[in-house]
Amino acid sequence: NAGVTQTPKFQVLKTGQSMTLQCAQDMNHEYMSWYRQDPGMGLRLIHYSVGAGITDQGEVPNGYNVSRSTTEDFPLRLLSAAPSQTSVYFCASRGQGYTGELFFGEGSRLTVL
Amino acid sequence: GNSVTQMEGPVTLSEEAFLTINCTYTATGYPSLFWYVQYPGEGLQLLLKATKADDKGSNKGFEATYRKETTSFHLEKGSVQVSDSAVYFCAPEPLGGGADGLTFGKGTHLIIQP
Fold it and tell me: By CB distance 3.0 to 4.6 Å, which of A73, A106, B48, B97 could disulfide with B59?
């Protein structure tokens, strides 16, 4: 199994540009989420989804949009990138009714100039 | 909501040294407790967990005991190796699973020198 796959692994944007970070999982997991990781801040939850068609905000949602049209995919969109969004982004998933273990992708490092 | 306090480091040890990484948490009730590890250039992966008081989670020589009286879940290993160099995250699970997911500590950066 591939697990959780994120693309791209690296991206450089200019301020104001838009882009989408892709996340796909092949474990039929209901729950998916996006975190950002910054030095000294740990992991902070951006958005999450408990199933297709259902999304909700996490701790730091501003500047990001998500959608969940299928169980497998949970893309994260930056509509107008800002330097404050320079970070490493992780997608994670877990099965319905199964508490705890999150399965993480390898991360996407985004730099906004 | 839940919150976690753990030392950030970096914590630098020599190979074969004894390791303790402290983790204390605040939570409603008695959540499940987890340690995740992040190796360089990778995502997080589950290291061990404990689901109720006095449980001991263990994996890869690491252990942690769920102490409800001190609300702690300290990570220990008797003899660390260079390959243990990584960032370690403590995380309590919200009661009932919690749709908004785990609350992670800021992570402890561990460096093991040969």
Answer: B48
- How do beta strands B11-14 and B108-113 pair? parallel
Q: Do B43 and A105 touch (CB under 8 A)?
A: yes
pLDDT at B113: 96
Asked if the model's pLDDT at residue A97 lies above 80, the reply is: no
pLDDT band at B1 (very low <50, low <70, confident <90, very high): low
Query: In this predicted model, what pLDDT tens digit does every residue of A16-70 receive, in sequence order?
Result: 999 999 999 999 998 899 999 998 888 888 999 988 999 999 889 999 999 999 9
Q: Calculate the average pLDDT of chain A.
A: 92
| Measured distance CA(B78)–CA(A58) in Å, rounded | 37
Q: Which two tokens stand for residue A64?
A: 């990001």
How near does any CA of chain B get to the CA of A90, in Å? Answer: 7
Using an 8 Å Cβ cutoff, are A32 and A56 in contact?
Answer: no
Q: How far apart are CA B114 and CA A13, in angstroms?
A: 39
**φ, ψ (nearest 5 deg) of residue B23:** -145, 125
pLDDT computed for residue A68 by the predictor: 97
Instruction: Report CB contact under 8 Å: B104, A50.
Output: no
Residue A85: beta bridge partners?
Answer: none
> What does the H/E/C string look like for chain B?
CCEEEECCCCEEEECCCCEEECEEEECCCCCCEEEEEECCCCCEEEEEEECCCCCEEEECCEEEECECCCCECCEEECCCCHHHCEEEEEEECCCCCCCCCCCCCCCEEEEEEC
A14 burial via Cβ count (<10 Å: 0-12, 13-18, 19+): exposed
